[in-house]
Amino acid sequence: MSLKGVLMAAALQGVTEARARIFGHVLNPLGKRSPHKILRKKLIGEKIASWYPDDIKNEDPSVLAREEKERLAKLEMLKRRGKGPPPKGQGKRATKRKK
């Protein structure tokens, strides 16, 4: 390789590095795989989250109270039919241990 070729290669590399610095590009002279293409994309989580309304359950205590009332009423109905949860320590696993 001649001196002129070496100088041209060095000048071209210098220009490439300067261009990358000026325009904010990532220099990849070896051409290896890099996650830069994925990482430079804008994050879209906030935009997608803005499409959906806020969860009313977390904000309104009356909704939580109503749901709790419904849960307790259902539990009471199951207990009356004998289908409710067993008292603590008398479940399926506890009876297996006693045998």
TrEMBL record:
Ranges of Basic residues composition bias in the record: 90-99
Principal cellular location given in the protein's record: mitochondrion
InterPro entries tied to this protein: Ribosomal_mS33
Keyword field: Mitochondrion, Ribonucleoprotein, Ribosomal protein
Annotated stretches, region: Disordered: 75-99
Gene Ontology annotations for the cellular component aspect, listed alphabetically: mitochondrion; ribonucleoprotein complex; ribosome
Pfam families documented for this protein: MRP-S33 (PF08293)
Localization (cell): Mitochondrion
Family: Belongs to the mitochondrion-specific ribosomal protein mS33 family.
Identification of the protein by name: Small ribosomal subunit protein mS33
Organism from which the protein derives: Zingiber officinale
Record lineage: Eukaryota, Viridiplantae, Streptophyta, Embryophyta, Tracheophyta
